[in-house]
Amino acid sequence: MLSHLIDLRGDPALLSISALAERLEVNPSTISRLARSLGYTRFGELQRILLGDTLTPSHSFYRQHASTALSADRSDLLNQAHQLADEQCRNISRFLENLRADELEAFANATMAAGRVRLYGVRQFHAFVSFLAYGLGMLRSDVSLLSDCSHGIAEGLAGMSEGDVLVAASCRPYTREVVNVCKAARSHGIRVLVVTDLSNSPLVRHSDQALLVPHETSFISNSMVAFLSAVECLVNACATISGESAATALSRRDQFIDELAIELR
């Protein structure tokens, strides 16, 4: 079985132990035992190796991640662009290969049924949650970022109630405060949905549902293309699930856009 695992290095089946077990036609416990026999405390540690996750210190992560672009041939920029685009397409394909219909439906149902939806991400993932907040805000009310210019994280969490939904996102190298926010929210009965990269991500431990998105490319930092593609999939799923209520929200939005003459025509 070990040789088969090595052959699967980088394969999307490695994103979850259940998918891997199905591919290898064994029980997940068999894979866990193999990981322990190889000296790993759990499957997640072996998973990082098989997915090509480099164990570099955090202070050198971005410099090493950018090494391909920094050392690339200046006369070959177009090929570099093609390579990066191909890598991004493969990540989207891997995301879709592992995405299940019940996961999409559960995310959409939880998001559209919640009294409030708050979103949290920092650094690159601030763009991710802002995009998701915009999309969800087209379909329902009371959607916003957890913290904004008027209040901080603690105030944002204090304004949420049991059963509300927090959507959080991060990938390696994970941001400590995002993990802490997920943990605090869940301990107070807030439903936590996370979008992250690996099944052993620290965000997963403090979530009710996790969607996994691969992102390894030659981009100088963590690529956001597959993550933003996931946003569009999630928002469309929410629109489909909510049906007429989403249509009403979109019509109301169009009405205000027309009344305020916001768009140039």
Automatic annotation (TrEMBL):
Gene3D superfamilies: Glucose-6-phosphate isomerase like protein, domain 1, Winged helix-like DNA-binding domain superfamily/Winged helix DNA-binding domain. Transmembrane segments: none annotated. One of its GO terms (molecular function) is DNA-binding transcription factor activity. Residues 1-57 form the HTH rpiR-type domain. This is MurR/RpiR family transcriptional regulator. GO terms for biological process: carbohydrate derivative metabolic process. SUPFAM superfamilies: Homeodomain-like, SIS domain. CDD domains: SIS_RpiR (cd05013). Keywords: DNA-binding, Transcription, Transcription regulation. InterPro entries: Homeodomain-like_sf, HTH_RpiR, RpiR-like, RpiR-like_SIS, SIS_dom, SIS_dom_sf, WH-like_DNA-bd_sf. It holds the Pfam family SIS. It comes from Billgrantia kenyensis. The keyword DNA-binding applies. The keyword NADP does not apply. Residues 107-256 form the SIS domain. It comes from the Bacteria.
